[in-house]
Amino acid sequence: MIELEGVPELVDPVMVAAFEGWNDAGDAASTAVGHLEREWKGEVFAALDAEDYYDFQVNRPQMWLDGGSRKVTWPTTRLSVVRVEDSDGKGRARDLVLVRGIEPSMRWRSFCNEVLGFAHELGVEMVVIMGALLGDTPHTRPVPVSGMTSDSDMARTMNLEESRYEGPTGIVGILQEACTHAGVPAVSLWASVPHYVSQPPNPKATLALLNRLEDLLELRIPLGELPEDARAWQLGVDQLAAEDSEVAEYVQSLEEARDTAELPEASGEAIAKEFERYLRRRDGGPGTPPGHATGSGESGPSPYLRDTGSGRTRPARPAAAESGTAGTEGGQSREGAESGTEEADTAESSSRKPESSPEPSEEQDDSGEKD
């Protein structure tokens, strides 16, 4: 039994979780939860014992100085709670339990049971797990975000996809299934990150995840500098990609495939979602306009593409330009069995949208995955 002291009774609590590592291409998901914690001034009330779940040769502790004393920060998973006083613009309060950590190295079943123990004690009504995967998606278009659930009723009532994935998975998939077996409604949100610009951060993917979370929970999330960061990120990638004709041609091919596949769907529902988000934010005071960032933004060098060693930074030549599939870059190999298999329903011929969680192929070992 988990006993929580100092945590008040929560109002309609929803748990929102993200984990660094395999499930977090471009650090998009963990950054999204970190943004919620900062904007709503979350207070950490619990941390899982690092000794139980982490291999410190894989996720090493960090040394730092606090004045004149040395301290150690251990890799772990922390839980915080935030109160959203006016969640819908009509004065309704709601609490979020934020779970942010690193994918555990061991004892995943115990890890999930401990997280679910907190959810039970806090009266959590639903668990939302965010992740990000590498895919054949152009950086110039809105970031695809897929919503997955293992519950057929939730899929029908909340306009989600029912997960039917079979294959290797990560902690996002395991936690979602653990929730389902425990009778806790669970949803996973997956953002597709361009494989040819996979290095973190990716503010555009983070923004897309937060937009989808807004729609799912009917919240008003303060976005701060994220929209401007997303525009600046895209402009920087535009400029650097334009320096390499081969990469520019490859991006254009992804754009054409995406636009052709999505043309019949670029109406009704998408426009309605943007308008609903605008209405939620309209009375929230100064803020940013709704929607996804596009091509405008600040100019200047971008830290997001890897250094080729040629004296300038530009996008690496994507293997997909020759093979038609996502390649490997920046230590994150492409999504294979999971991102590849599950993205078959995406509205683009070369950009795949997962039917369930993205999982790695045999040739990948540390890219994002979804369930």
UniProtKB/TrEMBL annotation:
Q: Which Pfam families match?
A: PAC2 (PF09754)
What InterPro entries does the database record attribute to this sequence? Proteasome_assmbl_chaperone_2, PSMG2_sf
Acidic residues bias (residue ranges)? 360-371
Q: Tell me where on the tree of life, at the top rank, the source sits.
A: Bacteria
Instruction: Extract the ranges annotated as region (Disordered).
Output: 280-371
What name goes with this protein? PAC2 family protein
High-level lineage: Bacteria, Bacillati, Actinomycetota, Actinomycetes, Kitasatosporales
